[in-house]
UniProtKB/TrEMBL annotation:
One Pfam entry name: ABC_tran
Membrane topology, record value: Peripheral membrane protein
Name under which the protein is recorded: ABC-type polar-amino-acid transporter
Location (main, coarse): membrane
Family label: Belongs to the ABC transporter superfamily.
Organism for this UniProt entry: Streptomyces lavendulae subsp. lavendulae
PANTHER family assigned: AMINO ACID IMPORT ATP-BINDING PROTEIN (PTHR43166), GLUTAMATE_ASPARTATE IMPORT ATP-BINDING PROTEIN GLTL (PTHR43166:SF9)
InterPro entries registered for this protein in UniProt: AAA+_ATPase, ABC_ATPase_HisP-typ, ABC_transporter-like_ATP-bd, ABC_transporter-like_CS, MetN_ABC_transporter-like, P-loop_NTPase
Coiled coil: none
Catalyzed reaction equations: a polar amino acid(out) + ATP + H2O = a polar amino acid(in) + ADP + phosphate + H(+)
Any one GO cellular component localisation term in the record: plasma membrane
Keyword Membrane attributed: yes
Annotated ABC transporter domain residues: 7-241
Length: 245
């Protein structure tokens, strides 16, 4: 498949003190692609996600978003960062704001939309994630699965070019995992560009265009789910899969 690159990392390196946490990372995410990142705990998956959004600085390499280099800081960075939404394991909703306000807030502050327009869009998005009737509640009144769907609606509200998910279902009770994965499947089917760190191999098989396997800060494999799951090339990946499948 000829990809139209939306996110490109070239030879990206990052340390935390002595720890070389990202090593020579080359990764291209095409427009409309879903890339699932898997790998052992501590392999650098979360750091990679945060790096794509420049929530972390890097020491060398380049990151481009839609053909433009991501600057290290400043107004331009804030603008570009708003184009890549992020959904975390812990939903990070504002506890003292309603669901509607959670989804609307950044639209007004960052995207400079009027309050009415932002709320209208928020209601549409809440409907899309199956929460039209929860708009006036507070996060603590919702289940974990519902809170995570609010977080997804909030990320979508910024009209991002891509979404990053860092273990979005890892903090959820088992019966709530599917309602979140279904929303993500739907987004994937609609053509949203997504980078998803997850241990949900069913999602990887059914939604991913590519599976990226990381170990010790490196990308060890970057292949189709079909290839990866039927014949992983590396010992590390075989070992990892034998433990989780
Ligand atoms: P993963 O998400 O794959 O579990 P992380 O990206 O969270 O891995 O972490 C990769 C490595 O970097 C781990 O060894 C972790 O302990 C370390 N690390 C993560 N964040 C920090 C930080 N802020 N300061 C120092 N070390 C960190
Ligand atoms: Mg992590």
């Amino acid at each position: 498949m000829a990809v139209d690159p939306l996110i490109e990392l070239r030879d990206v390196n990052k340390h935390y003190g002595q720890l070389h946490v990202l090593r020579n990372i080359d990764l291209t995410v095409g427009r409309g692609e879903v890339v699932v990142i898997i790998g052992p705990s501590g392999s650098g998956k979360s750091t990679l996600c945060r790096t794509i959004n420049r929530l972390e600085t890097i020491e060398s390499g380049t990151i481009t978003l839609d053909g433009r280099p991501l600057p290290a800081e400043g107004r331009e960075l804030a603008r570009l960062r708003a184009e890549v939404g992020m959904v975390f394991q812990s939903f990070n909703l504002f506890a003292h704001k309603t669901v509607l306000a959670n989804v609307s807030l950044a639209q007004v502050k960052v995207r400079k939309r009027g309050k009415d327009e932002a709320e209208k869009r928020s209601r549409e998005l809440l409907d899309r994630v199956g929460l039209a009737d929860q708009a006036d509640k507070y996060p603590a009144q919702l289940s974990g699965g519902q809170q995570q769907r609010v977080a997804i609606a909030r990320a979508l509200a910024m009209s991002p070019k891509a979404l990053l998910f860092d273990e979005p279902t890892s903090a959820l009770d088992p019966e709530m995992i599917n309602e979140v994965l279904e929303v993500m499947q739907q987004l994937a089917a609609e053509g949203m560009t997504m980078v998803v760190v997850t241990h949900e191999m069913g999602f990887a098989r059914s939604a991913a265009n590519r599976v990226v396997f990381m170990a010790d800060g490196r990308i060890v494999e970057d292949r189709t789910p079909e290839e990866f799951f039927t014949a992983p090339e590396s010992e590390r990946a075989r070992d990892f899969l034998s433990k989780i499948l």
